Amino acid sequence: DMIASIGEDGSFRLWKLADGKSLRDWNPPRGKLNAMQFHPSNCNSILVAGDAGIVHMLNMSTGKSAENDLI
Question: Quick one: which of 35, 36, 50, 68 is 20 to 30 A from 5 by CA?
Answer without folding.
Answer: 68
